[in-house]
């Protein structure tokens, strides 16, 4: 049987969009200016790790970090993530430095909001909201309702 395009499937089930860990990594590097950031996506969490430069008085030091994020809420085209864990030290300024980048990311009260309208792959579709999302090995899969 030949697999044909059926527009009613997209309207009923939503338009699937896959964002890979490497896409998210490039996006974070581009928007935050942090170059030593790696991203892993598991079925339960998004994990970011690397080093960031911290300035204290006249000294600069590279501080390692590891953040574990868990998606908890969807509103329109934004997914909110809870900062589940931060190692080795839980410092707000590291989170602010990486994630306080409106309109792409917003960080407040251990919550990170990721606005998917900032992504070209989503921005090209002018209508619809996030209908569902799923973390899979190496990817965040979202469906836009149309």
Total E-strand runs: 9
**What's the tally of helices?**
4
**Average pLDDT figure:** 79
How far apart the termini lie comes to 27 Å
H/E element order: HEHEEEEHEEHEE
Determine the fraction of residues in helical runs and give it as a percent range.
10-25%
Report the C-alpha radius of gyration, rounded. 17 Å
Strand content: over 45%
**What summary fits the major beta sheet?**
6 strands, antiparallel
Pairing-aware structural class of the strands and helices?
A: alpha+beta
Shape: elongated
Low-confidence blocks of residues: 1-8
For the largest sheet, list the strands in their spatial order.
2-3-4-5-7-6
What does this structure look like?
The protein has 146 residues and is of the alpha+beta class. The chain has four helices and nine strands. It has helices at 7-13, 21-32, 92-99, 120-123; strands at 15-20, 37-41, 46-56, 59-75, 78-87, 105-108, 111-115, 130-136, 139-144. The strands form two sheets. It has a six-stranded antiparallel beta sheet with strand order 2-3-4-5-7-6, covered by helices on one side. A hairpin with a 2-residue loop joins strand 3 and strand 4.
Keywords for this entry:
elongated; six-stranded antiparallel β-sheet; alpha+beta; about 50% strand; about 150 residues
Q: Quick summary of this structure?
A:
The chain contains four helices and nine strands, in the order αβαββββαββαββ. The protein is an alpha+beta fold.
Topology of helices and strands:
Elements: H1 7-13, E1 15-20, H2 21-32, E2 37-41, E3 46-56, E4 59-75, E5 78-87, H3 92-99, E6 105-108, E7 111-115, H4 120-123, E8 130-136, E9 139-144
């Amino acid at each position: 049987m030949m697999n044909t395009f059926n527009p009613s499937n997209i309207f009923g089930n939503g338009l699937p969009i896959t964002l890979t860990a490497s896409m998210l990594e490039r996006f974070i590097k581009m928007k935050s200016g942090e170059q030593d950031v790696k991203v892993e996506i598991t079925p339960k969490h998004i994990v970011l790790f690397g080093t960031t430069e911290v300035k204290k008085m006249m000294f600069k030091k590279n501080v390692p970090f590891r953040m574990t994020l868990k998606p908890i809420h969807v509103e329109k085209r934004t997914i909110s993530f809870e900062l589940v864990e931060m190692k080795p030290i839980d410092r707000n300024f590291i989170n602010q430095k990486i994630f306080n980048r409106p309109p792409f990311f917003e960080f407040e009260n251990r919550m990170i909001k990721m606005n998917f309208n900032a992504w070209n792959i989503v921005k090209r579709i002018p209508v619809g909201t996030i209908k569902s999302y799923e973390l899979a090995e190496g990817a965040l899969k979202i469906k836009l309702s149309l």
